[in-house]
Design brief:
The protein has 1 helix and no strands. The protein is mainly α. It has one domain (1-35).
Length: 50
């Protein structure tokens, strides 16, 4: 019975870890897209090199 409880608690722990990582990744992607819209990366013209 003890092994069953260990497996159940491990499954709960890894599911919570999965949710936290997924939420953090989603928030990071949203923040990156917002930052890109607010301040887009300037594109250099190739003719400026000469």
């Amino acid at each position: 019975m003890e092994i069953v409880l260990t497996v159940v608690f491990a499954a709960i722990f890894f599911y919570i870890l999965y949710v936290v990582i997924r939420a953090g990744t989603r928030d990071g992607i949203i923040a990156a897209r917002k930052a890109e819209q607010d301040d887009p990366i300037p594109v250099r013209d190739a003719s400026e090199d000469y």
